[in-house]
Amino acid sequence: MQASNEFWVSWSQRRKIRFVRTVAIVLVLLFLLGRCAFGGDDGDGGDKSAGSTTTTAAEATTTTNPMPTAMVAADAATVLPEGRYIAGAGVAGDVIMVIAGLNDKRNSTDTIWRFNPADGALTPVGTLPLPLHAAATTGLGGRALVMGGAKGESVYKDVFAVDADGNVEKLGALPTARAGATGVTSADGTTAYVVGGYDGTSPTNEVLMTTDGVTFTPVATLIHPVRYPAVAVEGRSLWVMGGEYDNVISASVQRIDLDAGTVTEGAPLPAATSRAAGVTVGSSLFLVGGRTPSGVTGQILRYEGFSGGFIVSGS
At 67, which CATH number? Predict the structure, then answer.
């Protein structure tokens, strides 16, 4: 903890403000998506491996980078039309699109809501062609990409683009059906990645990249199969942190070299964690919230290059 304090003190005031603001945005987004929701994804989950798993913290693991920087405090929960979990969220221009997910009856939904970080307003703007949840969702080209997902026993491979007005365009399909994966966008906003998940029977370990939502290219193969991992891009590295599979929550940290296509196993997380959010602030990598074998966690972990692992940075 002493090393963590020294690290914080060494930061400039501008960097501290940027870090606090970004973490606040992540926490509001997680709260918006019902991170402490009421049940597992087995009720209408299309996930035989989920069993009686309890769905709790940080249900939406979609990370977008860069993130909106203008925001005022808002109690987002008071403006949600209804509860959601295992929903998707992706940036479209200056707003966040909250897409589909399970409702309080464990039914998949097709709703599209627009959340404006500038004023906290959340507005219903459209619907998907079909109800689903657990889709990999992230921003690309000014629209939110919705890739795969599930409903009941069905797992999908459709890819849709949703603009800020709720208009939906079907772009194509993933190479195979996939649900419980995480979507993330490169720092320059030109490339989206799909990480983890399963096809309804087996894990989908191939990490895919796309620049248009139409063509998907494998870039690496995960060492450990995971669903609902936290994912973040830092430089030319793609970090895959935690996740779960076959009712087992993982502490694994998998680092993908995007140039070489290699996967390196890093030092494990302090505790097995699933359904958390991964985020980068400058060159710093953070893991926010999630679910551990002991229950919901509010910790924020920071990757410490000196020790080669994650340490507690806040809670």
Answer: 2.120.10.80
DSSP string for residues in 114-166: EE-TTT--EEEEEEEEEEEBS-EEEEETTEEEEEEEEETTEEEEEEEEE-TT-
The Cα 99–Cα 33 span in angstroms is 10
- Sheet strands side by side (includes 206-210): 182-185, 192-195, 206-210, 217-221
- Whole domain around residue 6: which residue ranges? 2-314
Model pLDDT for residues 166-178, shown as the tens digit of each residue: 999 999 999 999 9
Residue-wise over 179-213: b if at least 16 C-beta within 10 A, else e?
bbbbbbbbeeeebbbbbbbbbbeebbbbbbbbebb
What is the largest distance, in Å, between two alpha-carbon atoms of the chain? 52
Q: Tell me how far apart the alpha carbons of residues 266 and 248 are, in angstroms, rounded to a whole number.
A: 19
Backbone angles phi and psi of 16, in degrees to 5: -60, -45
Q: How many CA atoms lie within 13 A of 56 on its CB side?
A: 16
Question: How many Å apart are CA 301 and CA 116, to the nearest integer?
Answer: 27
Helices (H), strands (E): how many in the chain?
2, 24
pLDDT single digits (tens) 19-33: 555 555 555 455 444
Extract the runs of DSSP E, i.e. beta strands, from 18-65.
none
Number of domains composing the chain: 1
Q: Which of 314, 301, 309, 298 is nearest to 31 (CA)?
A: 298
